[in-house]
Design a protein that fits this description.
The complex is a heterodimer of chains A (about 220) and B (about 210). Chain A is mainly alpha-helical and about 220 residues long. Chain A has helices spanning about 5-20, 25-45, 50-70, 75-80, 85-90, 95-125, 130-155, 165-170, 175-190, 195-220. In chain B, helix 6 (about 175-190) links the parallel strand 7 (about 160-165) and strand 8 (about 190-195). The chains are: A mainly alpha (about 220), B alpha/beta (about 210).
């Protein structure tokens, strides 16, 4: 290999990025889904501002994680359909590195746009402006965790019938800590308390999943 | 450009690919069992047989994409399963699917593989007569052009063993001749070819294995 393992990682990541730019519909669909859920919520719970801002942290987290799930079943599915997966597996890259590049690619093309859309959703849910920064930080960590777990889920359900249904059932229970600590961080911030402990716990979850999930996904890809 | 395998020159006739007592099971059906053959440096082996005889499965097993149910695949004497990553780097596999991204241009499609394996994109495209199409998006290519773009991966950087699954499917006569040139140069440089096909290929003195 010419550029070594890191060069190969960058090549796979760059390809993900280019494909997302050429096909922005996947990214747009996730962002629209996120904003629409936030827009529908006030209709359901009524327009009372206190009720809405109490529900806002949980609603933001749940909407963002569900939105980030949308493009996951195409993560390896599209590659398997056109034969690219075989070429990727034979690229000489360790399969864990391949899965890590895919996870980072998913986060950059789905997680980051969701973070950018957070103020819009937060405004519709009447979240106090002081908590928007923490909300974005919490969503950044929560979507990163979902990208990592989702890559593992996508690798495991690849080739399964109804894999698109199986994937959320497999991944969302693992993402529950992200919802708990993410919502707690936003709640603390809107109550004027320190959000740091909750964000640190989320960060610990991401640091734990960052090496382990791609390794497991790589093993699932090789069918071992 | 065509010295292969990190500058190591193998003695003529020494096998590049050794398949020993290989067996493959898909589902609960044995596709093949007890299969043994060797392909020497500069040699070519044609896999023939009816649809479903296991030609593609055999190529998958040799590439390391499918686990063998029994037996051993040796590439330049090294067992395939001991180090899958370096095994993969010593072969090129052109499967029955073209592995193209319709949203990327012809050159971008190939540049991704050049970044992984090395080699220059433009000469590789020209070797398959695709030089004029370099900036077109993959989605507008015809079947034969898509196949040629998949085959252009072979012209990027040398690898010891080429595994080809119906390489000439959909190609016109001129492109079959270009593929013939490419395969002849590969063999002259000491590479080996294992090709599954129903169509005539320009592979002089190729042996044939009927599955």
């Amino acid at each position: 290999m010419t550029g070594g393992v890191f060069g190969g990682f960058l090549a796979v990541l760059g390809r993900e990025w280019k494909l997302a730019l050429r096909h922005p519909s996947d990214t747009l669909a996730a962002v629209l889904f996120f904003v629409l859920v936030a827009a529908l919520f006030p209709f359901g719970v009524g327009p009372a501002p206190e009720t809405l801002s109490r529900l806002a942290p949980g609603a933001l987290l749940a909407a963002a994680l569900l939105a980030a799930l949308l493009p996951l079943d195409r993560l390896f599915g599209a590659e398997a359909e056109d034969g690219s997966l075989d070429q990727l597996l034979l690229s000489g890259l360790p399969r864990g590195v391949l899965a890590a590049a895919k996870a980072l690619g998913h986060w950059l093309t789905t997680g980051v746009p969701l973070i950018a859309a957070t103020p819009i959703a937060a405004a519709m849910l009447n979240l106090p402006v002081e908590a928007w920064g923490v909300a974005m930080a919490a969503l950044a960590l929560a979507t990163a965790l979902l990208s990592l777990l989702g890559t593992l889920g996508a690798a495991l359900t690849l080739g399964a019938r109804r894999g698109g249904v199986l994937l959320p059932l497999l991944v969302l229970p693992l993402a529950i800590p992200a919802v708990i600590f993410g919502a707690a961080a936003i709640e603390a911030a809107s109550a004027g308390l320190s959000a740091a402990p909750f964000l640190l716990l989320l960060g610990a979850g991401v640091s734990l999943a960052a090496p382990l999930a791609p390794l497991a996904a790589g093993a699932a890809l090789s069918g071992e | 450009m065509w010295s292969i395998g990190g500058g190591r020159i193998l003695a003529a006739g020494q096998p590049i690919l050794d398949v020993l007592d290989l067996a493959c099971i898909r589902g609960d059906r044995a596709v093949f069992a007890g299969l043994s053959f060797a392909v020497p440096a500069g040699g070519a082996l044609l896999l023939t047989g009816a649809n479903g005889a296991g030609k593609s499965s055999l190529l998958h097993v040799i590439a390391g994409l499918l686990p063998a149910a029994g037996g051993e695949v040796l590439l330049e004497g090294a067992p395939a399963r001991s180090d899958p990553a370096s095994h993969a780097l010593r072969l090129r596999y052109i499967s029955s699917q073209d592995a193209l991204k319709p949203a990327l241009s012809v050159a971008e499609n190939l540049a991704f593989y050049a970044a992984l394996w090395g080699g220059e994109v433009t000469p590789a495209l020209e070797a398959l007569g695709l030089g004029a199409l370099a900036s077109l998006p993959g989605r507008v290519l015809s079947t034969g052009q898509r196949r040629r773009l998949a085959l252009a991966r072979l012209a990027l950087a040398p690898a010891r063993l080429w595994l080809l699954d119906e390489p000439s499917l959909g190609l016109d006569a001129a492109s079959v001749a270009r593929l013939g040139d490419l395969m002849a140069r590969h063999r002259a440089a000491g590479g080996a070819i294992l090709a599954a096909t129903h169509l005539p290929l320009l592979l002089p003195d190729a042996r044939e294995l009927k599955l």
